[in-house]
Amino acid sequence: MQAKVLEAELRTETGKNASRRLRSKGLIPAVIYSHGKAEDIQIDSKEFSKLFKGRISESVLFNLKISNKEEQMAFVKDIQFDSVTDSVVHLDLYKVTKGEKIHTHLSLEIVGTPKGIKLGGQLEIHDRTIDVECLPTDLPEKFTVDVSELSLNEAIYAKDLKLGDAIKLTSNRDAVIAIVHSKKKEEPVAAATPSESTDE
Question: How far apart are CA 136 and CA 4, in angstroms?
């Protein structure tokens, strides 16, 4: 699959007022980090939305082209949204160095209907991401977790995920990803005892 390419420009002005001016022009203020160094950049908000189409996570790698520099692989480390409009107001990006392993989140896609559901159980999903370490080229955009075989009171743990030799799990191995609980039976409501009437 061809890597996504996101274009950006260097920015010289920083601070709240400068960021507001950028947003009013349809630009997103951002910072890209690499081994303790940081560069202030700006990204076209429409191009960003078009490229990611609502799917933004650390497990989505893309090529970042800043001005006339060579493309460099990166991922979104942190994203801030406007509390009213839900638009992106700031991005923290991390540069990926070729041949160097990265520590990041891997998105989990939960699929299937557990067998325990037919027995009256209820599926509860605890985590939709796990922490991993791997080379950038070995990182998938998502990892599919099939819960179809889960029966009542059965769970899938992080250690159960078959990630392969290229991806190292760094999350708690005993962390619960998904579990099927038995539904609690509702206690019957006791019928109200009618008060005795006294004939006068």
Answer: 14
pLDDT at 54: 60
Structure token pair of residue 92: 């923290």
| Nearest alpha-carbon partner for 156 in 133, 174, 137 | 174
What homologous superfamily does CATH list for 102-182?
Ribosomal protein L25, C-terminal domain (2.170.120.20)
pTM of the model: 0.67
Backbone φ, ψ for residue 80 (5° rounding): -115, 135
**Residues of the chain below pLDDT 70:** 1-3, 54-58, 184-200
Q: Which amino acid is at 194?
A: P
What CATH homologous superfamily does 4-95 map to? Ribosomal Protein L25; Chain P (2.40.240.10)
**Cα-based torsion angle of the residue sequence 127, 131, 132, 135 in order, rounded to the nearest 10 degrees:** 110
Closest CA to 178 of 148, 139, 138: 148
pLDDT in tens, 128-147: 999 999 998 888 888 999 99
Q: List pLDDT tens digits, range 54-66.
A: 666 667 788 899 9
How wide is the angle at C-alpha 140 spanned by C-alphas 134 and 143, nearest 5°?
105
Shortest CA distance to 116 belongs to which of 161, 154, 81? 154
Q: What residue segments make up the domains of the chain, in order of their start? A: 4-95, 102-182
